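Run log, item B.
One chain of 194 residues. Sequence copied directly from the ordering sheet:
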Amino acid sequence: MDDQWLVVGLGNPGPGYAGNRHNVGHMVLAHLADELSATFKNHKTNAAVAEGRSFGDGPKLILAKPNSFMNLSGGPVAALMRFYKIPVERLIVVHDELDIDFDAVKLKRGGGHGGHNGIRDIAAAAGSPDFTRVRVGIGRPPGRQPAADFVLRDFSADERTVLPNLLSDAADAVALVASDGLEAAQLRFHSPRS
């Protein structure tokens, strides 16, 4: 299928992690599923999967939230790619990014993992790092707080007021990559806000 895209949102399973900064990939996919009127169902690839078309008759998006912990995302992603016959150039991974300010979305294809273990595991399992990443900015931890603690904390009350806009932007970025390509999406989301 030429118009199919696999969209993977990274996070950790279970309600205890649901509001964590590290789970923003799951949050974006939940937002996207709502927009597509799609419902997540458990799939044999150890992921929850929902399917729908963006913009009504646009590309088919297969939304997947691995049921594994973040650092072990590669296995379910590789299984999904095999099951749906998705090449790596039609894989979009949505994940949290410490090196981007909170409330910003950046897109890129390929490159290193930047210390993100979920991205590292997917690149290894997929046999290539050349997938598109929708990087959702969560900012750096305050003071001397370790990054590992920061990403496993929930968004602050102030951040939660802005979070719906951030999730919406990231969902729009996914849909735009699938319909118009990475460069068009980068042009929109990397330009300064007016």
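Observations after the first pass:
- The longest strand covers residues 47-53.
- The CA atoms of residues 176 and 185 lie 6 Å apart.
Flagged for discussion on Thursday.
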